[in-house]
From TrEMBL:
It comes from the Bacteria. Gene3D superfamilies: Phosphoenolpyruvate-binding domains. The keyword Membrane does not apply. SUPFAM superfamilies: Phosphoenolpyruvate/pyruvate domain (SSF51621). GO terms for biological process: regulation of cobalamin metabolic process. One of its GO terms (molecular function) is citryl-CoA lyase activity. Residues 14-236 form the HpcH/HpaI aldolase/citrate lyase domain. It comes from Rhizobium leucaenae. Coiled coil: none annotated. Pfam families: HpcH_HpaI (PF03328). This is Citrate lyase subunit beta/citryl-CoA lyase. Belongs to the HpcH/HpaI aldolase family. Substrate binds at R79, E137.
Length: 310
C-alpha cells in the first residue's frame, strides 16, 4: 500500500552558497550576503594538508557568531569529507561540537551512508534539529537516489535535503558540460522524483563559470522548471540571480493567492475542485499554493529591517 509523502518542510533554499572553510576572508563575507543557506566546505575545496586548519577556521568562525540572530535565519551546513577518506570522522566530531543546522555528506552511494551518520548522531545525543543533507554525485548515488531518500523517512533518520553534484558525476561518467545539460536531465529528474516521493528538497548543482551571467541565468531557470528548490552556488555574484529565479515569481504568487482565496470561499466548502476563471483547480494545488505564499512571506520578513534590538 502506498504511504503518502510527509509534508515537505517550507524553508528558503533558493541560494545555497558554498564557502571553502580554508578561506577566512570568504568566511568573513557571509554575514553581508543575501543567500538563504551556506555550506561550509571541508571537502573538495580544501587541500588534504589544510584540512586541520580548515576545521580550526570553522571552530573560530562558529564561536564568533552573534547569539542574536543577526544572520536572519541563514541555514548553516557543514560539508564533511567521506568517512572513507581518513578525514571524515574528525569532521563529523566537529559537526557534533558546532551544531550547525545540517551536515552535508558528499558522494553518498547508498542508504547506509546516511543511516550510519544518523546512528552516530543518535549515539552522541545530538539535538533533533541537527539534520543531514546528502550529495548525489556518483553513478551509484543516482541509481540509489530513491532508496537513499526513503532511508530519510525511517524513524530517527535526519535526512532533509538532497543536493546534486555534477562536477563529480561528469568526471565519473564522461558526460561533457553542455548548455541545457541534455544528457544529465534524466539523472537530475531521477533525484527530483526521489525527493518528491519522500518529502525532501532537492538542490541543483553548482555552475562553475561564475562570470557567465547569461548561462547561469539559463541554468537557474532550467533548475526551477525541473522542480529544484534552489541552487548550490560557488560565488557571491550568483546569489541575486538564484534568489530571483528560484523564488516565488510574481505571477505564480498571484495565482497561488487566487487559489487560496477560491478554496477559502464558503461556496467551496466540501469541494475538491473549483472553477478559477475557466480553469479547473484541484484541492491538491492548494498545498503547493500555501507553500509558495509561505515562502514569499519568509522572504518579505527577511527583507524587513529588524525591529528587535537583541
Ligand atoms: N563565499 C564567500 N565569498 C567569496 C566566495 C564564496 N564562495 N567566492 C569569492 N568570494 C569573495 C572573495 O573572497 C572576494 O572577496 P574580496 O574582494 O574581498 O577579496 C570576492 O568574493 C570576489 O571574488 P573573486 O575575486 O571574483 O573570486 P576569487 O578568485 O576570490 O574566488 C573561487 C573564486 C572560485 C576560488 C571562489 O569563488 C571559491 O572558492 N568558491 C567556492 C568553491 C567551493 O566551495 N567549491 C566546492 C563546492 S563545488
Ligand atoms: Mg563533489
Amino acid at each position: 500500500m502506498s504511504r503518502p509523502a510527509p509534508p515537505r518542510s517550507v524553508r528558503l533554499r533558493r541560494s545555497v552558497l558554498s564557502v571553502p572553510a580554508i578561506n577566512r576572508r570568504a568566511l568573513q563575507k557571509i554575514a553581508d550576503l543575501d543567500c538563504d543557506a551556506v555550506i561550509f566546505d571541508l571537502e573538495d575545496s580544501v587541500a588534504p594538508e589544510k584540512k586541520a586548519e580548515a576545521r580550526e577556521n570553522l571552530r573560530a568562525f562558529f564561536s564568533s557568531l552573534p547569539t542574536s540572530k543577526e544572520e536572519a535565519g541563514k541555514e548553516r551546513i557543514i560539508r564533511i569529507n567521506t568517512l572513507s577518506s581518513g578525514f571524515g570522522a574528525e569532521d563529523l566530531e566537529l559537526v557534533l561540537a558546532l551544531e550547525p543546522d545540517a551536515v552535508l555528506l558528499p558522494k553518498v552511494d547508498e542508504p547506509q551512508d546516511v543511516t550510519g551518520v544518523s546512528d552516530r548522531f543518535a549515539e552522541a545525543e545530538a539535538p533533533e534539529n541537527l539534520r543531514i543533507w546528502a550529495m548525489i554525485e556518483t553513478p551509484r548515488g543516482v541509481l540509489n537516489a530513491a532508496a537513499i531518500a526513503e532511508a530519510g523517512r525511517t524513524p530517527g533518520s535526519r535526512l532533509d535535503c538532497l543536493t546534486v553534484g555534477l562536477n563529480d558525476l561528469r568526471k565519473e561518467t564522461g558526460v561533457l558540460p553542455q548548455p541545457g545539460r541534455a544528457y544529465l536531465v534524466p539523472w537530475l529528474m531521477q533525484v527530483i522524483l526521489a525527493v518528491s516521493a519522500y518529502g525532501l528538497d532537492a538542490i541543483d548543482s553548482v555552475f562553475n563559470d561564475f562570470k557567465d551571467v547569461e548561462a547561469f541565468d539559463a541554468e537557474c531557470m532550467e533548475g526551477r522548471a525541473m522542480g529544484f528548490a534552489g541552487k548550490m552556488l560557488i560565488h557571491p555574484n550568483q546569489i541575486e540571480a538564484a534568489n530571483r529565479h528560484l523564488g516565488p515569481h510574481e505571477a505564480a504568487l498571484a495565482e497561488a493567492e487566487a487559489i487560496i482565496a477560491a478554496f477559502a470561499d464558503p461556496a467551496a466548502a466540501g469541494l475538491n475542485v473549483v472553477n478559477l476563471g475557466g480553469r479547473m483547480v484541484e484541492r491538491l494545488h492548494l498545498v503547493e499554493a500555501e507553500r509558495l505564499v509561505h515562502k514569499a512571506r519568509l522572504i518579505s520578513e527577511r527583507l524587513r529591517p529588524s525591529t528587535s534590538s537583541g
